[in-house]
Design brief:
Elements: H1 7-10, H2 15-24, H3 59-63, E1 81-85, H4 86-91, H5 98-105, H6 109-122, E2 133-135, E3 142-147, E4 152-160, E5 165-172, E6 177-183, E7 186-190, E8 193-197, E9 201-206, E10 211-216, E11 224-230, E12 236-241, E13 253-259, E14 265-272, E15 276-280, H7 282-306, E16 329-333, H8 349-353, H9 374-380, H10 384-408, E17 417-421, E18 428-432
Parallel strand pairs: 1-2
Antiparallel strand pairs: 3-4, 4-5, 5-6, 6-9, 7-8, 9-10, 10-11, 11-12, 12-13, 13-14, 14-15, 15-16, 17-18
Helix pairs in contact: 5-6, 9-10
The protein binds 2-acetamido-2-deoxy-beta-D-glucopyranose (3 copies).
One 2-acetamido-2-deoxy-beta-D-glucopyranose (NAG) is lined by residues 160, 419, 428.
Biased composition (Basic and acidic residues): 288-304
Family: Belongs to the OSBP family.
Keywords: Lipid transport, Lipid-binding, Transport
C-alpha cells in the first residue's frame, strides 16, 4: 500500500495500469515512511513546532486599515497566516471522503443524496475556529495528495492570480467518483468579520450511479443557502446555514431538506456544521417542533410561577448542543481535534499532515508543489523572520515574471487545468486536462 516510492518506476505507464499496480503491488515499501501494523501509512499528527504567539501584536490596529478592502490585495504580517497554502486548505474538503465512499455504495438515491449533503456540510467543519489565513498560492503552484487508505488522489493548481482562482480535481482510486471544482476566494473585511462571496462550483460525479451533483462553496463565514442539485433529474437538497441570530442561539446551525422532482420533501436534514448532521422524516420533524413549542410555553409559565427555578439539573452531561429529534439517523459527526491543536493553529489531524514532506516524496512531487514553498516551510518550523523574507521574495519573483511576460506578449498558460464549460451547470469552469500523475514535469515554471 505504499505508492509514493513506486511512482518513479511507473513513469510513462498509463493511468489505468497505474491503478492496477496500486491494487496488486502492495509488497514494495518506502523504507523511510512510518507504517502501522496493518500496512496503512501513518501520517504525521502534529507540526514540527507550536505556533508563534499573536498576542504581542494588536490585531485591531492592523485590521482597521483593511476595512472594505479585498483581502487578497492586502499584505498582512505573516503572523496572521497559518502554514498552509490555500491549495492545501481546499484539500481539507477530502477529510470526510468516507461519506462519498458511503454514497457510492448506497443503492437508494435519497440515501445517496443524504450522504452527499453531509459531505458538503462536513467540508466546512475544519474551518471552525481557524483564524489563520492560508498563504495565497502563487500562479502555477500545485498541490497533490494521494491517500490510498481513503481511496483517492487529488491534484490542484493555481490557475489565475488576479482574480485568484484555485482549481482542483480528485478521483477515486477504484473509479467510483470524480470530484472537482474551481474556487474564487473573494473575501472582504467589514470591521469584525470576513465576508465571503461564494463563488465557483463544486461538482461530484458518482460514476457507477451515473449521477452528478453540483453545489457552490461557502467560505469562512458559513451562512446562506447551499443547493445541491442532482442533474440527472433536477431533484435537489437545500441547506440553509443560519446566521448567528439573537444571543447566538442559531450559532453554526444548518437546516434543510431533500425534495424530489415533484417538490415533495422526502427528508429533513439538520445539525451544526461544527458538530454533527442528522436526518429525519418530515412528519417526525414537524411533530417534534410542535411539541417543543408547547413545552417551551409550559416551561415559561412554570418559571414565572416558581420564580428563580434552577434548571441546571436538566442540562445534559455531554456538550452536545444539537437537539436530536426522535427517530433521526446520524449522517456525520466531527472528529475531535487533538489536544495540541490549540497551539497549532486549531488544525485538525488531517490539516496537520497536509504539508508533510515524507521521505521519498521529494523525488516524485512536481517542483511546483506547495510542500516546496520555502516561506510556508519556514513558518511551519517557527522561523518567522525567514518565512516573512521568503514570502516577500516569492511575491517579488512573481511580479517580475509577470512584467517579463507582459513585455514579451507571452501569455501565461495553465498546465493541468483548462478553461472550459461545466457540462452540468453550463457555467465557465476550470477542468482537469489529465496527465499529472504521469509525472512528466517538463516546462514547469520556476516559481520558488
Ligand atoms: C438523481 O438522478 C438519478 C438519475 O436520474 C435518479 O435515479 C435519482 O433518483 C436522483 N437522486 C436523487 C437523490 O434525487
Ligand atoms: C483557536 O480557537 C480558539 C477558540 O477555541 C480561539 O480563541 C483562537 O483564536 C483560535 N486560534 C487560531 C490560531 O485560530
Ligand atoms: C474562459 O473562457 C470564457 C469563455 O468561455 C471567457 O469569457 C473567459 O474570459 C476565459 N477566462 C480565462 C481566464 O481565460
Amino acid at each position: 500500500f505504499e505508492i509514493y516510492c513506486n511512482y518513479e518506476s511507473y513513469e510513462g505507464v498509463s493511468e489505468a495500469s497505474f491503478k492496477d499496480a496500486l491494487v496488486f503491488d502492495s509488497s514494495q515499501r518506502d523504507n523511510g515512511s512510518v507504517h502501522q501494523e496493518n500496512g496503512i501509512k501513518k501520517h504525521r499528527t502534529s507540526l514540527p513546532v507550536p505556533m508563534f504567539s499573536r498576542n504581542t501584536i494588536s490585531v485591531w490596529s492592523i485590521l482597521k486599515k483593511c476595512i472594505g478592502l479585498e483581502l487578497s490585495k492586502i499584505t498582512m504580517p505573516i503572523v496572521f497566516n497559518e502554514p498552509l497554502s490555500f491549495l492545501q486548505r481546499i484539500t481539507e474538503y477530502m477529510e470526510h471522503i468516507y461519506l462519498i465512499n458511503r454514497a457510492c455504495s448506497l443503492p437508494d438515491s435519497i440515501e445517496r443524496m443524504k450522504a452527499v449533503a453531509a459531505f458538503a456540510v462536513s467540508a466546512v467543519a475544519s474551518q471552525w475556529d481557524r483564524t489563520g489565513k492560508p498563504f495565497n498560492p502563487l500562479l502555477g503552484e500545485t498541490y497533490e495528495l494521494t491517500r490510498e487508505e481513503h481511496g483517492f488522489r487529488l491534484v490542484s493548481e493555481q490557475v489565475s492570480h488576479h482574480p485568484p482562482i484555485s482549481a482542483f480535481h480528485a478521483e477515486s482510486l477504484v473509479g467510483d467518483f470524480v470530484f472537482h471544482g474551481s474556487i474564487y476566494p473573494k473575501l472582504k473585511f467589514w470591521g469584525k468579520s470576513v465576508e465571503a462571496e461564494p463563488k465557483g462550483t463544486i461538482t461530484l460525479e458518482l460514476l457507477k450511479h451515473n449521477e452528478a451533483y453540483t453545489w457552490s462553496k461557502l467560505w469562512i463565514e458559513q451562512y446562506g443557502t447551499v443547493e445541491i442539485v442532482n442533474h440527472s433529474t433536477g431533484d435537489k437538497c437545500v441547506l440553509n446555514f443560519k446566521p448567528c441570530g439573537m444571543f447566538g442561539k442559531e450559532l453554526h446551525k444548518v437546516e434543510g431538506y431533500i425534495q424530489d422532482k415533484s417538490k415533495k420533501k422526502c427528508c429533513i436534514i439538520y445539525g451544526k456544521w461544527t458538530e454533527c448532521m442528522w436526518s429525519v422524516d418530515p412528519q417526525s420533524y414537524e411533530a417534534h417542533k410542535k411539541s417543543e413549542k408547547k413545552g417551551e410555553n409550559r416551561k415559561q409559565k412554570q418559571e414565572q410561577k416558581a420564580g428563580q427555578n434552577d434548571d441546571a439539573d436538566d442540562m445534559p452531561e455531554v456538550q452536545e448542543t444539537v437537539c436530536v429529534v426522535p427517530g433521526s439517523t446520524l449522517l456525520w459527526r466531527i472528529d475531535s481535534r487533538p489536544a495540541h491543536s490549540a497551539t497549532m493553529y486549531n488544525f485538525t489531524n488531517f490539516a496537520m499532515s497536509l504539508n508533510e514532506l515524507e521521505p521519498g516524496m521529494e523525488a516524485i512531487l512536481a517542483p511546483t508543489d506547495c510542500r516546496f514553498r520555502p516561506d510556508i516551510r519556514a513558518m511551519e518550523n517557527g522561523r518567522m523572520d525567514d518565512a516573512s523574507r521568503e514570502k516577500e521574495r516569492l511575491e517579488e519573483k512573481q511580479r517580475a515574471a509577470r512584467k517579463d511576460r507582459s513585455k514579451s506578449d507571452k501569455e501565461w498558460s495553465t498546465r493541468w487545468f483548462g478553461n472550459g464549460t461545466n457540462p452540468y451547470t453550463g457555467l465557465q469552469d476550470w477542468l482537469y486536462t489529465g496527465g499529472y500523475f504521469d509525472r512528466h514535469y517538463q516546462d514547469l515554471p520556476d516559481i520558488y
